[in-house]
Design a protein that fits this description.
about 850 residues, alpha+beta, Jelly Rolls, TIM Barrel, about 15% helix
């Protein structure tokens, strides 16, 4: 086969992204899998060129075994009803083979090869060209990364055959886990669930390049970079060469000498290389505070004018620090500025089959909701894509250990106050996976804190190893021993909390609670309970004969253990809003609870910043079609909670404090806001106005102003309304809010508090909402094609004497009645006063060919009948 020039390759290299290095080949396509119990031959034969695998299942990596079977059509509609229960798990109790044939080009200058397995769940025997490369006594651990030297075995210019026998995780293994969030996959996610890469180099290879960044002053006018990498001399001779670096148009170099077979860490510092002092750097910010600026480092080793190896890594220049506020709660600063962490708990799809477009839509959703963070309980991601996307879109990440490993019920081994990591072997294994993950992810500017504990904290011997890895591999980033309020001898007090709730609590809880999950400190996981999706989604996974009333099939799609039904949520709905008599009514009232609860939670933390330093909604997304803990559902259709979070976290915001009945205006934007006008109106249930208030004001950056209290208004109905507006100096509406309130006080019952919920003795009475007269909206729309999106302007006109409550907007494809996603409404679940008109914009990626096809806007509301309005091209 024809040789090719690596010098030519280098010239072309700079146009490739870091995932397309010409020194690296991703072994992605053309794999085959099959159960070992149906294969008579062993690895020596299976990894030979003459073996026939015609009956095997096709697979592309990364892929678990079960995901590959689903893609082959062996299992269909796995999430519908209780289908997941019917899939036999016995077939996944034994090993499965993965097989791949590939060819490498001939090039004797670059003759050293290695295979990198970034994630095998859980153990494996690895064969290449008829020889065992490594066996399951060494290759084990779902979060280990293995580099295998295959130089001796590779056949340049000929067919190579790689065969991997994968064994499933068993009880006690530190594997991928979903805790009580959803069911496990039938195969426990066994398989090659992360990428397999083939690396080639000359005599010297480069591994694990890392860029540390630091500002030299508070003004951030200069940044200093320190670059490290591990380099290896694969030959038996002394080698002298040059390590070359390039960051945009800046280049630098250093002479390096290596003894035969030597591997060493090289460090390039700004003291010796002046080019690593960056003047006026482009700074990485979260999307709400600035631009998430990124750089690429190209690092090469040149020997005798030939490039032996090259790596490209992306990094951002930013500085993350933590602090304790005056009440002892931990908070975080980005580039010297305090940041109220606002986010949700992430999870990958149940069978780990997220695509790039799916991940990008989900990260864009975080930005659209005005969130600035996500928490990864576990090292999620079958590729690095989700981390790259958070870098790109300016979303902070908390990344670390999962509580799946801390409780015996989940991992299948005894636990104590320190979790399940007890033996010397446990400590060794977890230390190794921790080091692998840190070295893999440490260049991402989006990661602002490592967590080496979740619900618990590790025993001192284990914590010492965690800290040792961080001090050696990533010494500048903050870390936490636990996501709960813990104190350790090695790292001190965490200063964060995990005290619930996880189930329904009334809105005022978040403003008034000072014992548990209320708006103080950093609540690393919490939320107002279930977020039931819209009715169209429910019908996609609940069979028609189980849609109503709620039954065990619904419960199967709840969370697990304590959260295996909607009982507390539905009881609250019945008491506050009146009992739903059918699915449509239940869906409408669910969206009311979704919006009201999520908005109050985030608004309380906004009101109390920086005594409140962070809030992580549990959870952010859905691993499968479910009824609990999600801003948007598995199908990427937002619930009302999505738009409640967007509303509550908007940069300049007017809102109601349920705790003291005051109105607050908040400015969490990048700059001050001058010449604003706030309007407050209170209405009885018949829309008779009983109170009004206007005030002109200016807001400094990061300032809250209390306007007025509403606790002395007479003659209020049991159910009444508060309408809030905030205008700029040109009278452009920049924030609006609408609340349905009750004179019946909501009273918490702390004597019956549990770890997951604080129950209520008394709930608000909002049942008069059921008596709102029906109203009909006048609706028009127009479609505008822009560069990368379609923008739809929808004009809503309530030309009636009545309130139009909770207007829900969705877009559907008429040909298949499927919702169009991802979808980005600037507002949704909104309310219009009598004779009010609003224009609401929505953007949709241009990958949806709206022009020339039949699409419609589906509109409905609390007292608004469902309508389908064609989109006007």
């Amino acid at each position: 086969m024809k040789k090719f020039s690596f010098i030519f390759m280098l010239a072309a290299f700079t146009s490739f992204s870091q995932n397309q290095s010409l020194f690296t080949t991703k072994l992605t396509e053309g794999w085959q899998i099959y159960p070992s119990e149906k294969v008579e031959q062993q690895g020596k034969v299976i990894s030979s060129e003459n073996f026939t695998a015609n009956s095997w299942y096709a697979a592309n990596l990364p892929s678990t075994v079960f995901a590959a079977l689903v893609r082959n059509g062996i299992y269909k509609d796995i999430y519908f009803g209780e289908n997941l229960k019917s899939i036999s798990k016995d077939q996944f109790l034994k090993s499965w083979w993965y097989r791949k044939e590939f060819i490498v080009e001939e090039d004797e200058t670059h003759k050293y090869f290695k295979l990198r397995f970034s994630g095998i769940n859980y153990r494996a025997n690895i064969w290449l060209n008829g020889e065992l490369v490594s066996d399951s006594s060494e290759i084990y651990g779902a979060f280990r990364r293995f580099d295998l030297d295959i130089t001796r075995l590779i056949r340049q210019g000929e067919k190579n055959v790689l065969a991997v026998e994968v064994f499933p995780p068993v009880a006690g293994d530190y594997t991928i886990g979903f805790v009580d969030w959803n069911p496990d996959a039938p195969d426990k996610n066994m398989g090659i669930w992360r990428e397999v890469e083939l690396y080639r180099s000359g005599d010297v290879s480069i591994d694990f390049p890392f860029v540390k960044t630091k500002f030299t002053s508070d003004e951030m006018k200069t940044a200093e970079l320190t670059i490290s990498a591990e380099i290896t001399n694969h030959s038996s001779k002394n080698i002298s060469g040059i390590i070359e670096g390039k960051i945009e148009e800046t280049t630098f170099s250093k002479n390096i000498s290596l003894a035969p077979n030597e591997r060493k860490l090289i460090i390039l510092t700004p003291n010796e290389i002046q080019e690593l002092k960056i003047s006026n750097p482009r700074i990485w910010w979260t999307h709400d505070l600035g631009k998430p600026e990124l750089y690429n480092l190209q690092l090469s080793f040149k020997q005798d004018s030939i490039y032996s190896d090259q790596k490209i890594v992306q990094f951002g220049i930013r500085e993350i620090t933590d602090y304790f506020n005056e009440n002892g709660y931990r908070g975080y600063k980005l580039n010297g500025r305090k940041v109220l962490i606002r986010g949700g708990g992430w999870v990958d799809n149940l069978i780990l089959d997220n695509t790039y477009s799916n991940l990008e839509a989900q990260i864009k959703y975080a930005k659209h909701m005005n969130l600035n963070a996500l928490r990864f309980e576990g090292f999620w991601g079958s590729t690095e894509d989700v981390y790259n996307l958070c870098d790109k879109y300016g979303i902070l990440l908390m990344v670390g250990i999962t509580c799946h490993w801390e409780w015996g019920a989940f991992i299948g081994k005894p636990h104590d106050d320190f979790g399940t990591i007890h033996t010397d072997k446990d400590i060794k294994d977890v230390s190794a996976l921790w080091k692998d993950q840190i070295k893999w992810l440490r260049n991402h500017p989006s990661i602002f804190v490592w967590l080496y504990g979740s619900d618990k904290h590790p025993k001192p011997e284990m914590e010492q190893e965690f800290l040792k890895v961080l001090s050696e591999e990533d010494p500048l980033r903050p870390y936490l021993a636990s996501a709960a309020d813990k104190n350790t001898t090695l790292s001190g007090r965490t200063g964060v909390k995990m005290k619930g709730p996880y189930d329904f609590v009334p809105p005022h809880y978040w403003f008034t609670d000072t014992l548990y999950g209320g708006a103080y400190g950093f609540n690393t996981e919490t939320g107002p309970g279930p977020q039931v999706p819209i009715i169209e989604s429910i019908k996609k996974f609940i069979p028609a004969d189980h849609l109503w009333p709620i039954d065990s099939v619904w419960n199967f799609h709840c969370a697990g253990l304590t959260f295996n039904s909607l009982e507390r949520y539905t009881d609250a709905m019945n008491n506050r809003l009146g009992k739903a008599s059918n699915l449509n009514e239940y869906s409408t009232k669910s969206q009311f609870l979704n919006y009201e609860g999520m908005r109050a939670m985030f608004e309380a933390f906004v009101a109390n910043r920086y005594n409140a330093t962070g809030i992580i909604q549990w959870m952010y997304n859905a691993a499968w079609p479910k009824l609990w803990w999600q801003f948007y559902d598995y199908y990427l259709i937002p619930t009302a909670a999505f738009y409640a979070a967007r509303k509550a976290c908007e940069p300049t915001h007017i809102f109601y404090n349920y705790g003291n009945q005051s109105i607050i205006v908040s400015n969490n934007s990048k700059t001050g806001k001058d010449e604003l006008t706030a309007e407050v109106k209170v209405f009885n249930s018949d829309i008779t106005q009983v109170f009004s208030y206007n005030k002109k004001l200016s807001l400094k950056y990061d300032e809250n102003i209390k306007l007025v209290e509403l606790n002395k208004i007479d003659n209020l109905d049991t159910t009444y309304f508060v309408d809030l507006r905030l205008f700029d100096k040109k009278h452009y509406l920049i924030s609006s809010n609408f609340y349905c309130l009750s004179t019946k006080e909501e009273i918490l019952d702390y004597s019956k508090n549990e770890w997951f919920v604080t129950p209520a003795k008394q709930l608000a009475d909002l049942t008069k909402l059921n008596s709102l007269p029906n109203t009909e909206l006048e609706i028009s729309n127009k479609l505008i094609k822009k560069e990368n999106v379609f923008e739809i302007e929808v004009e809503l006109n309530n030309n009636s004497e009545f309130l139009a409550l909770q207007i829900e907007l969705n877009i559907f494809d008429m040909s298949n009645n499927e919702a169009v996603v991802p979808v980005f409404w600037e507002d949704n679940y909104l309310t219009l006063l009598p004779h009010e008109k609003r224009i609401i914009k929505c953007s949709i990626p241009s990958s949806h060919t709206l022009i020339g096809r039949d699409y419609f806007i589906k509109i409905r509301g609390w007292n608004i009948g469902e309508r389908k309005v064609p989109i006007t091209n």
